[in-house]
């Protein structure tokens, strides 16, 4: 027999051996480290190609098949997805010290963040992250936020003034997005840097919003297939695309972060600065926060509340415009407490407005998959071992559709949060859960409360000329983005009483000057103490 004939006769054997290796490799891959139920993965891609456009909605459908906690394989990564309030409590609260870290992803951590570092919300848990989180959480705790109310009032003044002016006293419909972006960004900028951007069309404001939206796309756990399939990173067009888009986003971001910091340092040198979180750390010789940690706190303050708050507002305003009956209930509730007067910002004493912003957060769930977590150490769920360094998604969208928790999940009903039973349980999961829950929750809720109460008190919000869809299940403009936004639409802010708006604006302008001159109060001392203690 010739060598060639021998080779040929061995070919089926070699083929069978290769096939056996491939099958064994696939079985090992499909079984993985975590033995929870879940969809059968495809080779290489796992379940990535079955997830559709809106991953959170697909996970909700899968949770009905595989149970409240299931495993999904995304390329090389196994992910545990948590879909009910009860399961969230079992893992994120009862085993809080294990469900405390954040996973690393290629596009965001290696490409976009290589210079300025990670935000707090994307930092794995270690001593440095602990210091950053403590400093931010202290600067954003309840008493600190109470001292920021004049700053929120200052932005509410601009909000009321500009929707009135640009909407020509309610005769013109406007796209509400930019107004809420400025509101959210300015509160964070004043609290952190003691400076604000005045105009809705301000070029720096536009730049920050545009770049932060791009960063959010890199951060999204549903956006970058190459985060899960390393092979894709090496395809020339993909590698070049991610590297150049990531680098340009990073360069643009570094530029305005430096500008904001340099501007504050210049004001400190001239002694014209006002009290603010970053200034207090810079001026404190005892501060235990190093430059990299300060950069991380600054990044978090600029980005964390921007898309999340603006998107919650825009969805809600679009919904309220189509539901005048909810606006009238809210106004009646305000009038019950203030007898026709302007609602106060210093106290949150209209329970219906609190219930309204909670229902908006639940119903629209802007961070549908929250921010991803990683486990620090081994844990178990119902006897199934979940190993160290497992990526975990909290599916807030699914929890908000958990009938065992909310009953009539598809109905927008603020009243559900007025129920006395509600006071003893976590209202909703839009701010996450457990030990890495949103550090800005008190500030965000205060911003929601103040803006809703003032807007509803001063205006009738009406839909624009063109009809629009505002159902969060179908109207999302960016289902693969980090924070879901509705497709653009317009509304009208029709003044209920123009002269009362004018006298409010006049009075608030005087107060606003004092607020800006004072800077932040309790938060600043809190941060100083924290930095010293850390
Ligand atoms: C409606 C507005 C907001 C929403 C829906 C929101 C939502 C979230 C969520 C879901 C997380 C992750 C929580 C988890 O893993 O369990 C988070 C983290 C965080 N948020 Fe917010 N957030 C909002 C506003 C803000 C604001 C205004 C700030 C501060 C200015 C802020 C600061 C942070 C920080 C620092 C983290 C990281 C916490 C950590 O990783 O330890 N957030 N936020």
TrEMBL record:
One of its GO terms (molecular function) is heme binding. The keyword Ribosomal protein does not apply. SUPFAM superfamilies: Cytochrome P450. Pathway: Secondary metabolite biosynthesis. The chain crosses the membrane at residues 6-27. InterPro entries: Cyt_P450, Cyt_P450_CS, Cyt_P450_E_grp-I, Cyt_P450_sf, Cytochrome_P450_fung. Its cofactor is heme. Heme binds at residue 438. Keywords: Heme, Iron, Membrane, Metal-binding, Monooxygenase, Oxidoreductase, Transmembrane, Transmembrane helix. Belongs to the cytochrome P450 family. This is Putative cytochrome P450 monooxygenase/Phenylacetate hydroxylase. It comes from Tilletiopsis washingtonensis.
């Amino acid at each position: 027999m010739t060598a060639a004939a021998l080779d040929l006769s061995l070919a089926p054997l070699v083929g069978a051996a290769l096939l056996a290796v491939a099958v064994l490799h696939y079985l090992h891959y499909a079984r993985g480290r975590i033995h929870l139920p879940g969809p059968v993965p495809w080779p290489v891609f796992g379940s990535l190609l079955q997830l559709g456009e809106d991953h959170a909605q697909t996970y909700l459908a899968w949770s009905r098949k595989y149970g409240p906690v299931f495993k999904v394989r995304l390329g090389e990564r196994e992910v545990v997805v948590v879909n009910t309030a009860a399961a969230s409590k079992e893992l994120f609260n009862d085993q809080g010290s294990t469900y405390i870290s954040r996973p690393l992803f290629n596009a965001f951590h290696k490409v976009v963040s290589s210079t300025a570092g990670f935000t707090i919300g994307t930092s794995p848990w270690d001593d440095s992250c602990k210091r950053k989180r403590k400093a931010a959480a202290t600067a954003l705790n309840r008493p600190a936020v109470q001292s920021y109310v004049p700053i929120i009032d200052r932005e509410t003044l601009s909000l009321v003034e500009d929707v009135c002016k640009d909407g020509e006293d309610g005769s013109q419909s406007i796209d509400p997005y930019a107004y809420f972006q400025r509101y959210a960004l300015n509160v964070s900028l004043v609290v952190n840097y003691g400076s604000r951007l005045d105009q809705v069309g301000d070029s720096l404001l536009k730049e920050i919003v545009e770049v932060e939206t791009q960063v959010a796309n890199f951060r999204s756990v549903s956006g970058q297939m190459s985060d899960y399939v390393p092979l894709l990173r090496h395809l020339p067009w993909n590698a070049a695309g991610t590297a150049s888009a990531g680098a340009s986003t990073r360069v643009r971001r570094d530029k305005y972060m430096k500008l904001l910091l340099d501007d504050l340092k210049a004001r400190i040198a001239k002694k014209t600065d006002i009290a603010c979180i970053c200034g207090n750390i810079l001026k404190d010789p005892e501060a235990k926060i190093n430059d990299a940690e300060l950069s991380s706190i600054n990044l978090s303050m600029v980005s964390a509340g921007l898309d999340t708050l603006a998107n919650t507002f825009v969805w809600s305003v679009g919904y309220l415009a189509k539901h005048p009956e909810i606006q009238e209930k809210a106004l009646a509730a305000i009038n019950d407490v203030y007898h026709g007067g302007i609602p106060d910002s210093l106290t949150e004493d209209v329970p219906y407005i609190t219930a309204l912003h909670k229902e908006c957060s639940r119903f629209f769930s802007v961070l549908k998959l929250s921010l991803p977590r990683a486990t620090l150490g081994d844990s178990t769920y119902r006897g199934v071992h979940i190993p160290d360094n497992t990526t975990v998604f909290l599916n807030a969208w699914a929890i908000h559709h958990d009938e065992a928790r909310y009953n009539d999940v598809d109905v927008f009903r603020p009243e559900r949060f007025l129920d006395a039973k509600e006071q003893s349980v976590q209202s909703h999961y839009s701010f996450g859960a457990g030990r890495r829950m949103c550090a800005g929750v008190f500030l965000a809720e205060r911003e929601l409360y103040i803006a809703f109460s003032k807007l509803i008190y001063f205006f009738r919000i009406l839909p624009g000329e063109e009809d629009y869809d505002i159902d969060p299940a179908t109207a999302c403009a960016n289902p693969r983005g980090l924070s879901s936004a509705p497709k653009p639409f317009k509304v009208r802010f029709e003044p209920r009483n123009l002269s009362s708006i004018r006298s409010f604006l006049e009075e608030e302008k005087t107060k606003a000057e004092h607020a800006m001159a004072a800077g932040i109060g309790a938060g600043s001392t809190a941060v100083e103490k924290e930095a010293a203690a850390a």
